[in-house]
Amino acid sequence: MNSVVRFSIMAACAALFVIQGYTQSDSGVPHLRKQGTATQLIVDGRPFLALAGELGNNTATSLENMQPIWPKLVSGNLNCVLVAISWAQMEPTEGKYGFALVDGLIQEARRNNLKLVFLWFGSWKNGLSSYAPYWVKTDYKRYPRIRIKGGKTLELLSTFGDATRDADARAYRALMRHIKEVDSVPHTVLMMQVENEVGVLRDSRDRSAPSNKSFAGPVPKELMDYLERHKDTLAPELREVWAAQGFRTSGTWEEVFGPGKPDSFDVPIQTKSPPMSAEEHETSWRKLHWPVDEIFMAWNYARYVNTVVEAGKKEYDLPMYVNAWLQQPNHAWPGTYPSGGPVPQVYDIWRAGAPSVDILAPDLYLEYFDEVCARFTRNGNPLFIPETSTNATNVLSAFGKFNAIGFSPFFIERSPAPDTDLSAAYGLVWQLAPAIAAQQGKETIAAVRLNQGDAPLDLKLGNYTMTLSYVGMGRVPIAPDQSAAPAAHDPKAPEAAAILIAAGPDEFYFGSVGGGIRIAFAPTTPGPKIVGLGDVQQGKFVQGEWRVVRQLGGDDTGQGEILTVRPNVPLRVTVYRYE
Questions:
Q1: Which of 14, 50, 200, 402 has the fewest CB atoms within 10 Å, i.e. is most exposed?
Q2: Mean pLDDT over each residue of the chain, to the nearest integer
Q3: Which has the closest alpha carbon to 4: 439, 542, 506?
Q4: What is the pLDDT of residues 400-448, one digit of tens each?
Q5: What pLDDT, on the 0 to 100 scale, is given for residue 388?
Q6: Cβ proximity of 522 and 464 under 8 Å
Q7: Alpha-carbon distance 230 to 233, whole Å?
Q8: How many Å apart are CA 2 and CA 358, to the nearest integer?
Q9: Are 351 and 493 within one domain?
């Protein structure tokens, strides 16, 4: 076998050029493109898997502060960085914009062979408005705040402030115009996040006079028309709320969606038990509470954000997303998490109100990682995770199971290093990137998780059923019968995750992180029933071609009968059948 094996799907051969930052041509601005059930980010004509990290909120407020950080990001196998741009810093005086910081960040990213996603901290950041300019904060008549129960005002700009919305949109439009001027050909900036974790905190909705007037009025016809057109595909939580009111096609907000939060109830900071029961604490975060309030706020935030997004896209049409502070066990009621943000139950409200937004994205720190990803990918929403933890097994699940565009732990400057689990996982995805990109959205790619003590897992992929067993970090068995004895229990045994890719009828790519995984093959098509290992190669993709690092056999493959995928070792495997 030659030391270089050309990848079988030629359309994806060049994908690693983008992953590894090779010279690019001006073949169009970054955009989203469907492939099967997946949506991919296309950069210079090729799929880009964002192995990213989000900087701390104020880390990139000066180029000097960033100087020691760039090398750390590169050493951690990142290819993309999420960086905040503050409205207050960019427009300190109304109508006067400064772009020196933006230009410097783009230039430094290029020098370090990194891509950027800019986060626009405009009217809202984490449900409040601390990144709005001083001239906005001090003119509370022109730029009004919300009010909560009892008439209390928060440092939270209201969606009913048209002047605020228009000022935000003008600033964002100016930013996008400038990015196009300085980056339309190199394509360093790939996407934009618009605002950050929007929604009302400490109450379920805005109770200012303009908001109360709107709430007492009819549900806008355009929203009702959207719900009627999409009635059969609405998120089940939303459809259930509407069904309980008889699928009314007109009326006030409460007539269409039921009553809101009682005036007598004070929203706590957290929903720990008590006041919730233990059962409610475990299940309540998946449901809508006082749904009309959250639906009302979702509509108003969506309309506001859509105005900002449309203004930016008129200048430079990059993919744009909105991120969500998630509902969770300790924050299960609207107001304990930002009410009106793009959580899955109100996706349809956001789709109706903000059609120009390309992605609704989770800031995902919950232990229920796969469940949240599944909820966020309903009805074709692309998965991009702008904030999360550094859990390495989640990386493979995101890209292999949920067709993620990107994965981005928060405060990344605290964690990247060549010897971390995250860096290893990113390195593995980096080395398998063309194979992953070629199969996303098809039935030829999968990801699994296994823990010590789990029963073997059967998975159908291509023409085979694979039986996957956890083998931890121990040595590779040298004969088939040695795999049958269970390993001694290790309380520190890591979770294992594997990504599995069928590149052809008898050709596969595999990689794992955490622990090792043994794979046994059984055919699912007519013919001989015994499956043998053909070529087993440790390697990586370089400029779209598979390059063999080490040919494996003998003890490393159970004498040709046992395949063990060891952590952080990408494999290309061919199999054959015999009698």
A1: 14
A2: 92
A3: 542
A4: 999 999 999 999 999 877 789 999 999 999 999 999 999 999 999 999 9
A5: 98
A6: yes
A7: 6
A8: 43
A9: no
The CATH number assigned to the domain holding 251 equals 3.20.20.80
Answer whether residue 464 is part of any domain.
yes
Contacts 24+ apart (CB under 8 A), 369-378: 369/394, 369/397, 370/397, 370/401, 370/402, 370/449, 372/326, 373/397, 373/398, 373/401, 373/402, 373/404, 374/402, 375/344, 376/344, 377/402, 377/403, 378/235, 378/344, 378/347
The first and second tokens of residue 481, run together, are 């019968």
Task: List the domain range (segments joined by +) for residue 316.
Answer: 50-430
Amino acid letter, 45: G
pLDDT digits (tens, 9 = 90+) for 396-406: 999 999 999 99
**Pair (531, 476) in one structural domain:** yes
Angle in degrees, CA 483, 485, 487, rounded to 5: 95
**Does residue 33 sit in helix, strand or coil?**
strand
**Integer Cα distance of 176 and 85 in angstroms:** 12
Pick from 318, 308, 337, 35: nearest CA to 164: 308
Number of domains in the chain: 2
Give me 176's structure tokens.
């996008």
Alpha helix locations (H) across 316-404? 347-353, 369-376, 392-401
